[in-house]
Amino acid sequence: MLKNSELIAVLPAKDLGRAREYYRDKLGLEVAEETPGGLVYRMASGAAFLLYETSNAGTARNTQMCWTTADIEAEMAELRGRGVVFEEYDLPGLKTENGVATMDGERGSWFIDSEGNTLCLTQQT
């Protein structure tokens, strides 16, 4: 039954007002719905995510959400123009150049939102 259900990602925020401003000003996203549980954002693809307030925000060190794009450089340029800073990594199996890592079959870039969540862009190659 789950395969027929709507899926929504959930991200923590220490300060929901600050998060709303970041997602609007830096990522160009508007809140689609305000619920008692938080702020819902809906993508044109039908995907959605919820930002909810909790003191646990920013504690995860893993990628929490990723957008797939056809042109990672264009997306990064637009986001950089809005003030988003992309992470640079030099780890075993993961090295970025100008914010982009090339992996088997895909390219990826990561940034940290105002709440400490690690978000990414990915492009299939």
Automatic annotation (TrEMBL):
Pfam families: Glyoxalase. It comes from the Bacteria. Gene3D superfamilies: 2,3-Dihydroxybiphenyl 1,2-Dioxygenase, domain 1. InterPro entries: Glyas_Bleomycin-R_OHBP_Dase, Glyas_Fos-R_dOase_dom, VOC_core. This is Uncharacterized protein.
